[in-house]
Specification:
The protein is an alpha/beta fold. The chain folds into two domains: 5-194, NAD(P)-binding Rossmann-like Domain (Rossmann fold, 3-Layer(aba) Sandwich); 232-419, NAD(P)-binding Rossmann-like Domain (Rossmann fold, 3-Layer(aba) Sandwich), CATH 3.40.50. The chain has helices at 13-24, 36-43, 54-63, 98-110, 127-137, 157-162, 174-183, 196-227, 231-239, 261-274, 280-304, 330-340, 364-368, 381-384, 388-394, 409-414, and strands spanning 5-9, 28-32, 67-70, 78-83, 111-119, 144-147, 167-170, 191-194, 311-315, 344-348, 359-360, 373-376, 399-402, 418-419. The longest helix has 32 residues, at 196-227. It is elongated, with a radius of gyration of 23 Å. Mean pLDDT is 95; it is low at 422-432. Bound molecules: nicotinamide-adenine-dinucleotide (NAD).
Length: 432
């Protein structure tokens, strides 16, 4: 059986994974993007983002001519057009659908007769209806829109494409749903079929749930600190409950960030309100999250007796460990707040070369050298490998705010450091 001719529109973080993944499922895939540099890099098998396994898979797909990248394509060539453009937040929280609607216009021009348009971007409930109406207005009433949300974790994108927990197919038309399902044939995962609006809402609900568990974890960490309880053991108890699970987002830190959880939680709150539904728990989740970085700054200011002119080392810059994505990073929010109070921030993250508001050092040691205070944002092996004796030798001061409880509190205290009692006074960046 030969695969379908698939066009992926927008080959950014999600689109690149989708294009490579569908090529590996033996479809003939073309990726297009308005960003000429991105297209040129992908054609040569180069990827900006740090995603283990994806570069090798991209190169294989290019070599086998299963995948190509173009700036534009001829009309009529494609059985399915998959939209992976961004749906960023407007200041109100409302998702900005301009990229998506423009990509829809493009799909109207190039998708073959009777084809399907698949939305892979995260979209508010009702977007498929809007897109189908726009397709009809463009004379393409033959095209059906199917929503197939993407649930992958950044930093594990290739693994998650190949081994998803589920494939969700949201279609109002049975045949279109079957055709969309066929695109993902070959993945060993349960296929959950539903109508389109349910699939659209399900993606938002999944991210809102994850965001809520991070804010819950942070409030429990505060509670544990107040009672002198060990938050790590506490979360072990919760995770051992099969109704919660080992992979639950129960890790204290600076709060959730990245491109999805903050924007999707805010978007859900916004779109629900347009139908008169007030999501109080989600509001609390967002409020708890917004406060985390500020609380860390307050603790440091008190511990250091002021922040003006202080040099602060920051370990971990991306929104979570294992990715280079700086979008809505809680560590950068913290750096911004420190900078506003006169501190200078020197940071390190093995996957990040440049970050706004931070002098990026070439190593953890270089970030620590001469620092008065240290902030740990990531719970990662390279952070745990920093020896307190080495840090004491390099730093001028002895103050550490360890947001995720990455360090051995006893060893750092024994080396003369004042810490926020590590896992006790937590603030929330889980490894997700
Ligand atoms: N990043 C994640 O982990 C993740 C996970 C699941 C879902 N999503 C969703 O996927 C969508 C995309 O996110 P992303 O992180 O890949 O964004 P991104 O900004 O990395 O990629 C979007 C790409 O689309 C291109 N583009 C914009 N308009 C275009 C057009 N008209 N024609 C062709 N290309 C166009 C841009 O140049 C860019 O390369 C969002 O809706 C996001 O919520 C993201």
């Amino acid at each position: 059986m030969t695969g379908d001719r698939v066009l992926v529109v927008g080959v950014g973080r999600i689109g690149a994974v989708t294009a490579v993944g569908l090529a590996h499922l033996l479809h003939a895939v073309t990726g297009v993007d308005t960003d000429a540099e991105r297209v040129a890099a992908l054609r040569q098998g180069r990827l900006r983002e740090a995603e283990p396994g994806l570069r090798a898979a991209l190169k294989t797909a290019l070599r086998l001519r299963q995948l190509r990248f173009e700036r534009s394509v001829a009309p009529g060539d494609f059985d399915a057009t998959v939209l992976c453009v961004d749906t960023p937040p407007l200041p109100s929280g409302e998702p900005d659908l301009r990229q998506l609607m423009a990509a829809g216009e493009f799909a109207a021009r190039v998708t073959g007769r009777g084809g399907i348009v698949v939305t892979r971007s995260t979209v508010p409930p009702g977007t498929g209806d809007r897109l189908e109406a726009a397709l009809r207005a463009a004379g393409r009433g033959d095209l059906r829109v199917v929503h197939v949300p993407e649930f992958l974790r950044e930093g594990r994108a290739w693994e998650d494409f190949r081994e998803p927990d589920r494939v969700v197919i949201g279609a109002n038309d049975e045949r279109a749903g079957e055709r969309a399902g066929r695109l993902f044939d070959g993945l060993d995962a349960p296929v959950l079929r539903m109508d389109r609006v349910t699939a659209e809402l399900a993606k938002y609900a999944a991210n809102a749930f994850l965001a809520t568990s991070v804010s819950f974890a942070n409030e429990m960490a505060d509670c544990a600190a107040a009672f002198g309880a060990d938050v790590e053991r506490l979360f072990e108890v919760l995770k051992a409950d099969r109704r919660i699970g080992q992979r639950a987002y129960l890790v204290p830190g600076l709060g959730f960030g990245g491109h999805c959880l903050p924007k999707d939680a805010a978007a859900l709150e916004y779109v629900a309100a347009t139908r008169g539904v007030v999501l109080r728990q989600l509001r609390a989740t967002l409020d708890v999250n917004r406060e985390r970085a500020g609380r860390a700054v307050e603790w440091l200011e008190a511990a250091l007796g002021g922040l003006g002119g202080r040099e602060i080392a920051l370990l971990g810059l991306a929104f979570k460990p294992g990715t280079d994505d700086l979008r809505a990073s809680p560590a950068l929010r913290l750096a911004e707040l420190l900078g506003a109070r006169g501190a200078r921030v020197r940071g390190f993250d093995p996957l990040v070369r440049v970050a706004p508001g931070v002098m990026v050092a070439g190593s953890a040691g270089e970030a620590l050298a001469g620092a008065t205070g240290l902030v740990v944002a990531h719970r990662a092996d390279w952070v745990r490998a920093v020896e307190p004796a080495m840090a004491a030798g390099l730093m001028c001061g002895r103050v550490v705010f360890d947001a995720p409880g990455a360090l051995d509190h006893e060893a750092w205290t024994a080396a003369g450091f004042t810490t926020n009692r590590c896992r006790m006074v937590a603030a929330g960046a889980a490894d997700r």
